[in-house]
C-alpha cells in the first residue's frame, strides 16, 4: 500500500470527522474499508463506533469499551423491532447486538421470520388506524 503524506492523512481524517464513511474514503483510494480502518488506527485517528454518525471522542469511539447492554430490555425490544432498530436504540452496531444476543442464547430471526414480524406489525398499524378513523365523527 502506498504511503500517505501528513497532509493527505489530515484531509482523510477531516472528511471522516465530517461524516464520510470508512467505505466511502476507502473506495476513493481503491482500498478496502478494513484497510482504511487499519490506516486510521496507525495514524491515531479515532473512529466512530458501529454505524454511529456521532463524532468519535476519546470516551466514545470504536476502541473504547463497548457498553454493557440491558439484556432484559434489549430482548423485549427485539420482540417487536428489528435488529437495526434495537441496536440504534442502544447506540451500538447490529453486529455487536447480534454478538450479545448469541452470547445470551437469544434466537436470531431468519429472513422469513423477520418478514413475518414486519407484516404482523404493519397489519396491527393498519388496524389501529382503521379503528381510529372509525371512531371520529
Task: Give the gist of this structure.
With 137 residues, this protein is an all-alpha fold. It has helices spanning 6-17, 22-29, 33-43, 71-78, 83-90, 94-104, 111-135.
Top keywords for this entry?
single chain, mainly alpha, elongated, 61% helix, 137 residues
Account of the 3D structure:
The protein is mainly α and 137 residues long. Helices cover 61% and strands 0% of the residues. The protein contains seven helices and no strands. The chain has helices at residues 6-17, 22-29, 33-43, 71-78, 83-90, 94-104, 111-135. α2 packs across α3 (33-43) and α5 crosses α6. The chain starts with 5 loop residues before the first helix and ends with a helix.
What's the helical proportion of residues? 55-70%
Distance between the termini: 70 Å
Strand content: under 5%
Total beta strands = 0
Structural class label: mainly alpha
Mean pLDDT over the full residue set = 84
| Rg (C-alpha, Å) | 20 Å
User: Looking at the structure, what is the overall shape?
Assistant: elongated
- The helix/strand series, from N terminus to C terminus, equals HHHHHHH
Largest sheet: none
Summed up, the helix count is: 7
Low-confidence stretches: none
Break the fold down into its secondary structure elements and pairings.
Blueprint: H1 6-17, H2 22-29, H3 33-43, H4 71-78, H5 83-90, H6 94-104, H7 111-135
